[in-house]
Amino acid sequence: MELRRSRVIAAAILLGLLGAIVPIAAMAYISWTIAVEKQQDNLERVAEQTIMRAGRTFEDAKLALDSLAYPRLAPCSPQHIARMRVIAFNTPSVAEVGYIENGRLKCTSWGVEEGEVDKAPIDYVTPDGLEVTTHVQPAASMGNPVMALHYGGYSVLMDPARFVDILVEDDISLALANQDGLLISKLNSPDPALVETLSSGEPRKGMTSSSFYAVARDRGLIAIAMEPRANLAAKLREEQFLLLPVGAFIAIFIVGIVAWLSRKRLSPLGELSIAVRKREFIVHYQPIVELKTGTCIGAEALVRWQRPDGSLVRPDLFIPLAEESGLILPITDQVIEAIIAELGALLRMDRSLHVAVNLSAADVTSGRALDVLEDRLAGTEIESRQIWLEATERGFIDIDAARATLARARERGHAVAIDDFGTGYSSLQYLQGLPMDALKIDKSFIDTIGRNSATSSVTSHIIEMAKTLDLHIVAEGVETEEQADYLKARDVNFGQGWLFSKPLPAPDFIRYYRNAKASREDGRGNIRGVAA
Ligand code: C2E
Ligand code: CA
Ligand code: CA
């Protein structure tokens, strides 16, 4: 039983640890995935915004270039130059407009071009026909390198920053490329290697060992937003702040449940119900003898709880708890089953032998044990009169139900004995009304025999009372010859006690029974071995 306890405790500790770790680990993992998802969603939004912004900037440039074609004005005339200036001014993304003839820049929105300036070499052409030069050093405004878009004899110079002109946090970097991976514009110096792999690949979002990224594609453009993974820390803390307490709460809850269950499991009631489930109850049989002849006429079945380590628990230690909890009912069943399995053969062989079963108050009130008996006895050829039923006055709480059960028991052929007779408060009249066959005088009265004349007079009175009822009488707890003689002298027919035998395991009882029978037959001059 210690083994079982320590196994339960070990299992409880293991479950408790798991119950504490798993929810917290799960919440840590969930906070991480939520933080990552939020981070990536944000990057995705930035990439979408970037691609929209870039697309709109291209559209603006295309509109500007389209509107330069009409009305036709004399090339590089003051009106022509004024018109170019108006368009450059009205299109925020366009810094300068140039007019090109035969591959040479003739004039710009600033005025007539004096030097020999070639049209910038074209890097690629957009799906709607715009020729793009990604890197141009403007002739007129000597600023940063710019981008040039060419269409229908005109070029517009644009600040590439215009394409990625959206509001982002400092640690988010952006790259805008065409579908061949040619970098058009960037913000906050994105990692060039990552830009290269992403612009050729398919993924929409993801992470590398150092960065999160998101990619958006539209009309031949690719926008890539990325940010260092270190940025996750702040978001992660935010999520953990919310979720870790939830995990801790669940952990506490689970640990509490485990503690509660294991305490319940380790409680006497928990152990008893496991013992019932594991059928740990065995039966010992105490011989009942005819006092005059010493013949063994029966046995009382006394239950014992055999713990897994082999130790036996006395019934007084668990029967009260079993009765209180209702577990006595399955225990009674197990006793009945044990009797049939262990003594069935002996009972079939010797029809004068009986076995007495102790009924609990619940068994007496419900009468359920009778149905179990009928069911288990069916087909065994054990006669129901060979099974006696012992009921104590404690079982007569509901006297009408008890009377009905006892009457039904006798109808089925069982003999009914009132156990612990003399210890209750019931009057003789009260007992007279009950259907019964035998009385068992309680050990406490037998104990007084030969000790004290004052109390032994009570004992003789009890015996007289039992005789008045005209029933079989069994004296319990007979330990001395003196007691046996006293009982014999007062015509008590049966006795049970250590003087004859202690309660025995079935094989020992069978041996006892055969030996007693054989020696008796020997004594009468019969041949030894007939009964054995
Ligand atoms: P009980 O029905 O009065 O059983 C007699 C008790 O007296 C047994 O104790 C028996 O071992 C003991 N006994 C018999 N002769 C002597 C003797 O000479 N000297 C002494 N000192 N004791 C003797 P046990 O086996 O410990 O059972 C105790 C009680 O537990 C029983 O008292 C009975 O009330 C209950 N019990 C036992 N088995 C069952 C069962 O299967 N079902 C139910 N409901 N109760 C049971
Ligand atoms: Ca009894
Ligand atoms: Ca008794």
From TrEMBL:
It catalyses: 3',3'-c-di-GMP + H2O = 5'-phosphoguanylyl(3'->5')guanosine + H(+). Keywords: c-di-GMP, Cell membrane, Hydrolase, Membrane, Transmembrane, Transmembrane helix. It comes from the Bacteria. It is a multi-pass membrane protein. It is found in: Cell membrane. Its EC number is 3.1.4.52. Pfam families: CSS-motif, EAL. InterPro entries: CSS-motif_dom, Cyclic-di-GMP_PDE-like, EAL_dom, EAL_sf. It is an enzyme of class 3 (hydrolase). The keyword Membrane applies. Residues 265-517 form the EAL domain. GO terms for molecular function: cyclic-guanylate-specific phosphodiesterase activity. The chain crosses the membrane at residues 241-261. GO terms for cellular component: plasma membrane. This is cyclic-guanylate-specific phosphodiesterase.
